[in-house]
Amino acid sequence: MPLYRCFVRGENFPGELVGASQFMGFYTTRWIEAPTAEAAETAGVEMLRAEYRFSEEEKQRAPDARVYFEEVVEVPADTPQIPPNSGATWFEMDSD
User: Fold this and answer.
1) Is the preceding omega at residue 76 within 30 degrees of 0, hence cis?
2) pLDDT surpasses 70 at 55
């Protein structure tokens, strides 16, 4: 089955920065084996939903929380999967 590297951006997820709760954005990479790029996106969303940090059980998300797949690229099956399927880089959402 093909391997896809998915570069994902999320917006309006709950977070904390310097002790102040606010909505945050994130970037993360997920590696997905799927038959098509579209199936990789679907599996990637399900993977994120299953992770505690992104689940609704930890904190209430904003009603307009969204996940965007900025890049979905089929890569050779032996591509090193760095970083592994965990973690994210968080950023403060603009208040505009």
Assistant:
1) no
2) no
How many CA atoms, within 13 angstroms, populate the side-chain half-sphere of residue 23?
15
Q: Helix and strand tally (H, E) in the chain?
A: 1, 4
Name the pTM for this structure.
0.83
Instruction: Specify the long-range contacts of residues 17-21, CB closer than 8 Å, at least 24 apart.
Output: 17/90, 17/92
What domain range includes position 34? Answer: 27-59
Number of domain units in the chain: 1
Residue 80 lies in a domain: no
Q: Which of 34, 5, 25 has its CA nearest to residue 67? A: 25
What distance in Å separates the CA atoms of residue 52 and residue 70, rounded to the nearest whole number? 22
Task: Fill in the amino acid letter for 96.
Answer: D
